[in-house]
Amino acid sequence: MHGFQASSMDLRTFKNYVSLTLPNALCHASSVNEEFTDGNIEDMGKKLAAEVRKHIIDWCFSKDSSTLLLEKLTFIGHSLGGLIIRSALPHLESYKQYMHGYMSLGSPHLGYMYNTNSLFNAGMWVLKRWKKSLCL
């Protein structure tokens, strides 16, 4: 899952590396929130969960559509994507026996409220005012 104001293409290199390293793994780069990363994290999590369920239904069943071939389910998120994944997990409760891993790269799990860098704080103030972003 990509981060704030990013796209699924931003993680393309990472996805390609995983595909080369684990040739039997099925990788999916989420695109459902590409235009909406300014929104509510909970809503983005619900959209991600729906996209994951659809991907599993489309790609992880046997040809006769009766046997689920999913073995492990792992999530990788960058920045805001890590928070969106955490928000999606409760909506994927039916797949909890397949949950295998979660990796977040630079995700602000503890927020950014106590940052003392004045340049960073000024940039966040501008982003919040200009974009009217709920997630920030």
Strand order of the largest sheet: 1-2
Q: Provide the low-confidence segments as ranges.
A: none
Quaternary assembly:
single chain
Give the termini separation: 17 Å
Let me know the number of strands: 2
Shape: elongated
Percent of residues in β-strands: 5-15%
String of helices and strands: HHEHEH
Mean pLDDT: 88
Count of the separate structural domains: 1
- Let me know the largest β-sheet: 2 strands, parallel
The helix content, as a percent range, equals 25-40%
The computed structural class is alpha+beta
Radius of gyration: 17 Å
Please count the helical segments. 4
Description:
This protein has a two-stranded parallel sheet with strand order 1-2. It has one domain. Helix 2 (41-59) crosses helix 3. The mean pLDDT is 88. It has helices at 12-21, 41-59, 80-88, 118-131; strands at 73-78, 99-105. The longest helix has 19 residues, at 41-59. The chain is built from four helices and two strands; from the N terminus they run ααβαβα. With 136 residues, the protein is α+β, with helices and mostly antiparallel strands. It starts with 11 loop residues before the first helix and ends in a 5-residue tail after the last helix.
In short:
By secondary structure, the protein is α+β, with helices and mostly antiparallel strands. The chain has one domain (about 10-110).
